[in-house]
Protein backbone atom coordinates (compact mmCIF):
# COMPACT_ATOMS: atom_id res chain seq x y z
CA UNK A 1 0.00 0.00 0.00
CA UNK A 2 2.77 2.31 0.82
CA UNK A 3 4.54 1.52 -2.36
CA UNK A 4 1.44 2.50 -4.29
CA UNK A 5 1.35 5.90 -2.51
CA UNK A 6 4.95 6.57 -3.44
CA UNK A 7 4.28 5.66 -7.02
CA UNK A 8 1.28 7.98 -7.13
CA UNK A 9 3.09 10.96 -5.65
CA UNK A 10 4.37 13.33 -8.19
CA UNK A 11 7.63 15.19 -8.27
CA UNK A 12 5.86 18.42 -7.34
CA UNK A 13 4.44 16.84 -4.20
CA UNK A 14 7.92 15.62 -3.24
CA UNK A 15 9.31 19.05 -3.91
CA UNK A 16 6.64 20.64 -1.68
CA UNK A 17 7.44 18.16 1.08
CA UNK A 18 11.15 18.90 0.74
CA UNK A 19 10.49 22.65 0.78
CA UNK A 20 8.29 22.26 3.88
CA UNK A 21 10.98 20.24 5.65
CA UNK A 22 13.62 22.79 4.68
CA UNK A 23 11.42 25.64 5.95
CA UNK A 24 10.80 23.80 9.24
CA UNK A 25 14.53 23.29 9.66
CA UNK A 26 15.34 26.94 8.93
CA UNK A 27 12.55 28.26 11.14
CA UNK A 28 13.55 26.01 14.01
CA UNK A 29 17.13 27.23 13.60
CA UNK A 30 15.93 30.85 13.88
CA UNK A 31 13.36 30.19 16.61
CA UNK A 32 15.68 28.38 19.02
CA UNK A 33 17.86 31.45 19.74
CA UNK A 34 14.74 33.60 20.03
CA UNK A 35 13.15 31.17 22.48
CA UNK A 36 16.35 31.12 24.54
CA UNK A 37 16.39 34.92 24.54
CA UNK A 38 12.75 35.01 25.66
CA UNK A 39 13.56 32.59 28.49
CA UNK A 40 16.46 34.80 29.52
CA UNK A 41 14.20 37.89 29.51
CA UNK A 42 11.58 36.02 31.57
CA UNK A 43 14.25 35.10 34.12
CA UNK A 44 15.37 38.74 34.29
CA UNK A 45 11.78 39.91 34.78
CA UNK A 46 11.34 37.40 37.60
CA UNK A 47 14.48 38.68 39.34
CA UNK A 48 13.32 42.28 38.89
CA UNK A 49 9.90 41.46 40.38
CA UNK A 50 11.58 39.89 43.41
CA UNK A 51 13.77 42.99 43.79
CA UNK A 52 10.73 45.26 43.58
CA UNK A 53 8.95 43.22 46.28
CA UNK A 54 12.04 43.41 48.49
CA UNK A 55 12.29 47.17 47.95
CA UNK A 56 8.59 47.58 48.76
CA UNK A 57 9.09 45.72 52.04
CA UNK A 58 12.12 47.87 52.85
CA UNK A 59 10.19 51.05 52.09
CA UNK A 60 7.29 49.91 54.28
CA UNK A 61 9.64 49.07 57.15
CA UNK A 62 11.45 52.39 56.77
CA UNK A 63 8.16 54.29 56.65
CA UNK A 64 7.05 52.56 59.83
CA UNK A 65 10.34 53.41 61.56
CA UNK A 66 10.12 57.05 60.46
CA UNK A 67 6.56 57.31 61.78
CA UNK A 68 7.66 55.83 65.10
CA UNK A 69 10.61 58.21 65.33
CA UNK A 70 8.43 61.22 64.44
CA UNK A 71 5.96 60.26 67.17
CA UNK A 72 8.77 59.84 69.72
CA UNK A 73 10.31 63.14 68.61
CA UNK A 74 6.98 64.90 69.15
CA UNK A 75 6.66 63.37 72.62
CA UNK A 76 10.21 64.44 73.50
CA UNK A 77 9.51 67.95 72.20
CA UNK A 78 6.46 68.19 74.46
CA UNK A 79 8.48 66.92 77.42
CA UNK A 80 11.18 69.49 76.65
CA UNK A 81 8.62 72.30 76.56
CA UNK A 82 7.19 71.16 79.91
CA UNK A 83 10.65 70.84 81.45
CA UNK A 84 11.67 74.31 80.22
CA UNK A 85 8.50 75.80 81.67
CA UNK A 86 9.18 74.10 85.02
CA UNK A 87 12.78 75.34 84.92
CA UNK A 88 11.65 78.94 84.36
CA UNK A 89 9.16 78.67 87.24
CA UNK A 90 11.78 77.15 89.56
CA UNK A 91 14.36 79.77 88.55
CA UNK A 92 11.87 82.50 89.36
CA UNK A 93 11.13 80.93 92.76
CA UNK A 94 14.86 80.61 93.51
CA UNK A 95 15.36 84.27 92.65
CA UNK A 96 12.43 85.28 94.87
CA UNK A 97 13.84 83.20 97.73
CA UNK A 98 17.29 84.74 97.31
CA UNK A 99 15.85 88.27 97.29
CA UNK A 100 13.73 87.50 100.36
CA UNK A 101 16.62 85.92 102.22
CA UNK A 102 18.95 88.85 101.44
CA UNK A 103 16.35 91.34 102.55
CA UNK A 104 16.34 89.78 105.97
CA UNK A 105 20.14 89.81 106.14
CA UNK A 106 20.62 93.53 105.61
CA UNK A 107 21.24 95.83 108.53
CA UNK A 108 21.38 99.55 108.22
CA UNK A 109 23.00 101.67 110.91
CA UNK A 110 22.37 105.32 111.48
CA UNK A 111 18.98 105.36 109.82
CA UNK A 112 16.11 105.76 112.22
CA UNK A 113 13.34 103.17 111.96
CA UNK A 114 9.77 104.23 111.80
CA UNK A 115 6.98 102.35 113.35
CA UNK A 116 5.16 99.78 111.05
CA UNK A 117 7.85 100.15 108.41
CA UNK A 118 8.62 97.22 106.13
Short structural summary:
The protein is mostly helical. It contains two helices and no strands.
Detailed description of the structure:
- It contains 2 helices and no strands.
- The N terminus is likely disordered.
- By secondary structure, the chain is mostly helical.
Identify the notable features of this structure and list them briefly.
single chain, 118 residues, mainly alpha, 86% helix, rod-shaped, disordered N terminus
Summarize the helices and strands and which ones pair or pack:
Elements (H helix, E strand, L loop, with lengths): L1 H7 L2 H95 L13
Please report the total strand number as a whole number: 0
Mean pLDDT over all positions: 86
Radius of gyration, whole Å: 49 Å
Gross morphology is rod-shaped
Fraction of residues in helices?
A: over 70%
Structural class: mainly alpha
Detail the poorly predicted runs: 1-6
